[in-house]
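Mods, move this if it's the wrong board.
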Amino acid sequence: MPIPDFQSLMLPSLRRLGDGAEHKLRDLIAHMAEEFALTDAERKELLPSGRQPVFENRVGWAVTYMKKAGLLESPRRGWVRITARGLDVLRQEPERIDIGFLERFEEFRAFRTQSKTAEQKEKTEDEQSPEESLARAYETLKQSVLADLLDQVKRASPAFFERLVVELLVRMGYGGSFPEAARAIGRSGDEGIDGIIKEDRLGLDVVYVQVKRWEQPVGRPEIQRFVGALQGHRARKGVFITTSTFTKEAREYVERIDSKIVLIDGEQLAELMFEYNVGVSTVGTYLVKKVDADFFLEE
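Not the wrong board. Structure tokens:
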């Protein structure tokens, strides 16, 4: 039998996790392979990139989509567990769980919307060109990676989060070398400032940094304290990084003051990590080519 598509794997995977315990994703993949009676060759069949087995990839996407719908959660890296919503879905005894089924959940609809432009929403799959379909698939992959990145960052320890920020700033061209930046971040004892980092490799100017690994939104009072600390150093540039969000009042405040304050929330942090390859690795590269008509012009 052919390797099942990822939507066909959703309900069997949810049932397997129905005991409410934490399961290794690797074990779930093995159990699903046994349930679908895959041959050894089918288990080892690789994606075109040659970097991951097809079946492992499809189980992973089945889990990812159900996580986006709130049916599953990851209590720790590489593990998965059913949620109260997932148990409720099992009690309904659905005949199948697929994308159409998951669309009933607001969180999943929001996830799907993030990976579609307004133009794409107006098109069906059949109306899209191969290039458009490829771009859409890439955006869906990216949004999933961004969500997982932010989830990992939120679970990290404060010390690890600090190193992550240093790594990102250095990759972006700030702070000189990693050891220099690492010494700079965390050295300030002033309230509202976590570190001072070079704006350029020559150290002609510096940027003051504040990081907050928070769940609740960062409000105007926290930004005001940061700005006050900057003024105490006669500084005018600062970066405030959080894993959560900023309130409307906080954003409006930084737009009205003379100091240049950049606010980076959790989603922007994940975007920057993705762009500068912090915490991510390349699985495969696909070059889209077309015929070079100029090459075939004859004199």
